Amino acid sequence: MKLKILFSLCFIASLSAVYAQDLPTNPEPGKCYVKCITKDEFKEVQETIQSYPAYSSLEVIPATYKTVEETVLIKEESKKYVYVPAVYETIDVPYVKKENSNNLRVLPAAFGTDSRTFEIYPKTSGWEYRVLEDCPSINKEDCVAACFVEYPAQHRDISFTTLVSDAKTESVPVPEQTATYKKRVIKTPARMEEIIIPAEYTTIKRQVVDTPASTRTVNNPARQETVTKTVLVKKGGITTWEEVDCELLNPTALPIYYELASARLTAASKKTIDETLLPMLNEKPINIEIMSHTDSRGNDDYNMSLSQQRANAVVNYLVSKGISRNRLAAKGFGETRLTNRCSNGVDCSDAEHKRNRRTEFRILGN
């Protein structure tokens, strides 16, 4: 470090003989100064112009189709005639087997019984002689008694048959006698039957126009184009000397490390730029060079391109923060400036390779 400072001081001292008239006045020992010639100050002005007029165009809206199913006739309806024979059935037919008639039945005479009392002997009376049984006389006549006896009339009940009704006849009906016989009769007469042979259909699919083709008017607005112009705001050319850290005249490493095969700035890398480069560039009108490097892995040409992308990424980030691009230079060195032994074919750890994926910066004098 001391050698660098001494070299810088010696270099500045050697220049003092030639450019003594341009050196800063009242310099401080051990300080380094960068000669800055103020540049013309420009600003970008945007102007909107009409790059294409407004116009109308016709846009064809093609017809749209839809698929519909349709039933179509593939065989017409027809007829056929079929002879249907008569259908018979057997029935029982009743008939009178013997007609009804009347028979005569004889009703014999009817008799009854009756009785009648007849006097068969009249009432009589007279003298009767009786011999006493205990007559003591030998002469029976001595023992005869005359008695006047009266006999009542004698009657007799005689039964006889009486005619109640005389013989006669009465009519006795003789019912008819019925029977049945089997008879086959036509239940359904013979006929010719008409049979419809139905039509046959099938379903087809076809595309029909759903929306016919049409046109519509499209109003195309005028196209505006913004032209960015750079205009001179302040004329430069004024020489100034800016005090800087002598170390910053040499490449100074930034703690910005990249992922393998990537030029993306991480959030930590952006924070480093915000805390180191931005304050310096905003404070002094100096120019800086951004130098990016890769490790040795991968193709050499690819690494050279990748390192340039990494340097450009830092420059673009600074520009997005308001730093003029003409104050910044980006240079990629690929794997040509390794900080350790990890060159092609050397077995190194990821941490060792990571130290080579770095970005440096240095202050440029005008």
TrEMBL record:
Entry GO CC: cell outer membrane
Chain ranges of the OmpA-like domain: 245-366
Signal peptide: 1-20
Keyword NAD: no
InterPro entries given in the database record: Bact_OuterMem_StrucFunc, OMP_bac, OmpA-like, OmpA-like_sf
Record has RNA-binding as a keyword: no
Primary subcellular site in the record, as a coarse category: membrane
Subcellular location: Cell outer membrane
Highest taxon, organism lineage: Bacteria
Protein keywords: Cell outer membrane, Membrane, Signal
Name of this chain's protein: OmpA family protein
